[in-house]
Design brief:
By secondary structure, this protein is an all-alpha fold. The chain contains eight helices and no strands.
């Protein structure tokens, strides 16, 4: 599961570079962060790059969330489940319960953003709480009888 997560992260990094080359040009380089922000926010190409980049990022994050929402706790909980079965179970859980799962994903994002505001110190509280909540969410959403048939 860690390799799947890393692979999707690497895909995200490459797609950002691809979109930068596609929309901002291959020869465009930015000496400073301010110069990059100015180009992205004040040019048509930059705004298109921002919009398409966000759409692709949302798609990749939904894919990763679908694969990992239940997989990590399931692998920690059960020794007899391999990572492919865990990912299939996770995708099934997300597709059969889309509204609660998307709500859970939004909750995670909001809590993590709020936790980074005070110099990332909020993560000391938020990460254990999210881990605890994830465990209970997993126990509620996955029925173990369904795993016996996969």
């Amino acid at each position: 599961m860690a390799f799947v997560t890393i692979f999707i992260f690497i895909m995200w990094m490459y797609q950002v570079r691809f979109l930068m080359a596609l929309f901002l040009g291959l020869n465009t380089s930015f000496a400073t962060l301010q110069q990059f922000i100015r180009v992205v926010l004040t040019t048509t190409e930059g705004l298109i790059f921002l919009a398409v980049g966000n759409l692709v990022g949302v798609a990749l994050s939904l894919i990763l969330f679908s694969l990992a929402a239940v997989s990590f706790p399931l692998l920690l909980d059960r020794d007899d489940v391999d990572f492919v079965t865990a990912m299939i179970t996770s995708v099934r859980a997300v597709t059969t319960n889309p509204l609660p799962m998307i709500g859970w994903a939004i909750t995670i994002v909001v809590l993590l953003i709020l936790s980074t505001v005070p110099f990332f110190l909020g993560l000391l509280i938020t990460l254990p709480v999210l881990g605890h909540m994830t465990w209970h969410f997993y126990r509620r959403i996955v029925t173990f009888n369904a795993l016996e048939t996969t």
